[in-house]
Specification:
7-stranded mixed β-sheet, mainly beta, 2 helices, 5-stranded parallel β-sheet, 23 strands
């Protein structure tokens, strides 16, 4: 199952939105994925220019949550672009939390991940992560390759150029 802070399943376009609310899990044993904006971003789905500030709480009555939580999408099969995850994710006994998408099978482009308990933009990535940055680990993603950046590199003009272009190309 999927839970989204704004939309359960997206097959179209979600643009310029933000989620500042909370998702509260109550009840027995749960499985699935939770996204701050969308639970499942389907193949035709596009999430563009969105910001996630959402919070998640698990009540003590939740027996076990065997799924994943991410700031933008639980599962991404489409495209996520120009989004920011500001959620300070926490590891709980109920599940693991990740950055932009818990399971990325599509594209993540030009996104910023501010916090991640697991230090990753996506737990399972069989798709593409390009021109995105994980501030929590000082990592830059270039064509699916995670590059560890030093603090000095983060302050450089080259890093800004790469983030504001397609990995430094004119495309």
């Amino acid at each position: 199952s999927y839970i989204g802070g704004i939309v359960y399943e997206n097959n179209g376009l979600i643009r310029k939105c933000s989620n500042n609310g909370y998702i509260i899990m109550v009840g027995g044993r749960e499985t699935g994925t939770i996204g701050g904006i969308v639970g499942l971003n389907a193949n035709a789905g596009i999430v563009d220019s969105c910001i996630s500030n959402f919070g998640i709480a698990f009540e003590q009555s939740v027996g076990q949550f065997s799924g994943g939580v991410a700031g933008i999408a639980g599962i991404n099969k489409g495209r996520i672009a120009y989004c920011i995850n500001n959620v300070p994710m926490l590891i709980t006994t109920y599940g693991k939390t990740y950055g932009i998408a818990y399971d990325n099978q599509g594209e993540i482009l030009y996104c910023i991940q501010r916090y991640s308990a697991e230090g990753s933009i996506s737990k399972d990535n069989t798709g593409t992560i390009k021109s995105s940055i994980d501030i929590s680990t000082l990592s830059y993603y270039s064509n699916n390759k995670k590059i560890q950046l030093t603090e000095d590199a983060m302050k450089s003009d080259m890093t800004a150029w790469k983030l504001n272009t397609l990995d430094g190309t004119e495309e």
